[in-house]
Write a structure and sequence with these properties.
It contains 23 helices and no strands. By secondary structure, it is an all-alpha fold.
Length: 376
């Protein structure tokens, strides 16, 4: 208590250090006495210890956040290497002094060690444009880019592992391998492939980029869960085969899309590359039942749905247009063009379907009211 009241014969710096410690004491009376003693001190007398690297970290943290501390003392504490990063984060979030926030933004190593400082700077309305620029640069350079690099490295490792697993099971490296695996339909003229390439090619012959590789396990899981037709169901045992196919070039995948069996078609129509996905629609063995199933797939590329919607032969099938208008990925213009053909019972369900775009749902509701005679 004597120390808290400043009654001990101590040097100014020693007294300040003790008062800072006692200001956080468990005893309320001691805390109150220490706070009163701190209020009686001249804050300008402590600028020197703010810059001293030997000053205890808790004292520097206190100086950063002490309301009575002059700007000079706070700035000195900010640039002191011994100042805890947690104190800088709190200061960056609380300070209304733009020059202090800018000073914190200069401590790149602290920003790297404690990214919460970056977020505090960016969330403080008192920040300067320069402080914001520095904080954003550090976040981009040391977190976003490096995180992205780690993600790429992990994807590359996963891709290498997938290749290893697949190669241990089966090797897919040529058309002959695909024929042997029963993935190529017989009797389909190569001219269909050539015509498609003349229209959209030339196609890439290199392996796809990491972010363009299809997630085969997920896709096969979708096919197994979503397709009721037993003739298009796919065994999970085929995952290694399609993992290798997913790593084939666009040119090879297009060839398989146009000449492949029903099994291959239902996988490749979900390919993230629209050229590959749309190639399945050029397959002469594609049936109306398959098209009806494809029209319902929510993960398929919208260009696939657009081409289905523009094909008069397929859109003569009611199931196809019904699935198109219910699919949230179908281009709105395509869906709108088929609404008049939707049956009354399906129109009512569509008008309450929250998964479709608002304009489709609202238009369906108006049409339903009009047909049922309940509209205004």
């Amino acid at each position: 208590m004597a120390a808290a009241k400043g009654m001990l014969p101590l040097a100014n710096e020693e007294l300040f250090e003790i008062l800072v410690a006692l200001n956080a004491d468990q005893d309320e009376d001691i805390r109150v006495a220490a706070a009163a003693s701190l209020d009686a001190l001249d804050p300008k007398a402590f600028v020197a210890i703010s810059a001293d690297a030997n000053t205890p970290a808790e004292v520097l943290a206190f100086l950063c956040l002490w309301p009575r501390a002059p700007r000079e003392a706070v700035e000195a504490a900010v640039f002191n290497r011994a100042t805890p990063d947690a104190a800088l984060a709190l200061l960056a979030s609380r300070s209304a002094d733009a020059s202090i926030i800018e000073a914190i933004s200069l401590k790149q190593q602290s920003l790297i060690r404690a990214p919460e400082i970056i977020e505090a700077i960016l969330a403080n309305p008192a920040r300067t444009p320069e402080a914001e620029r520095r904080a954003l640069e550090v976040r981009q350079e040391f977190f976003e880019k490096r995180f992205g690099a780690r993600m790429v490295a992990e994807e590359q490792r996963a891709r290498a592992e997938a290749k290893t697993v697949a190669s241990e099971t089966i090797s897919v490296g040529s058309i002959e391998d695909l024929i042997q695996l029963g993935l190529i339909e017989e009797g389909i003229d190569d001219a269909v492939v050539t015509e498609y390439e003349n229209e959209f090619g030339p196609f890439e012959t290199a392996e796809p980029a990491i972010d363009e590789v299809m997630d085969v396990e997920q896709v096969i899981g979708e096919v197994i869960n979503d397709i009721e037709d037993e003739t298009v169901r796919i065994s999970p045992d085929r995952v290694p085969v399609f993992q290798q196919i997913a790593l084939m070039s666009v040119k090879d995948r297009v060839m398989l899309g146009i000449k492949g069996t029903r099994e291959a078609r239902m996988i490749l129509v979900r390919d993230p590359n629209r050229i590959v996905a749309c190639s399945v629609l050029r397959n002469p063995r594609l049936t109306d039942t398959e098209v009806e199933s494809v029209a319902a797939i929510r993960s398929v590329h919208e260009d696939v749905l657009r081409q289905i919607g523009m094909n008069r032969g397929w859109t003569r099938v009611y199931g196809v247009i019904h699935n198109l208008v219910r699919n949230p990925r179908t281009p709105i213009a395509i869906s709108l063009s088929f609404l008049n053909r939707i049956q009354q019972r399906d129109m009512r369900a569509l008008s309450m379907n929250k998964n479709v775009p608002d304009v489709i749902r609202q238009t369906a509701y108006r049409l339903y009211l009009k047909r049922s005679g309940t509209g205004g």
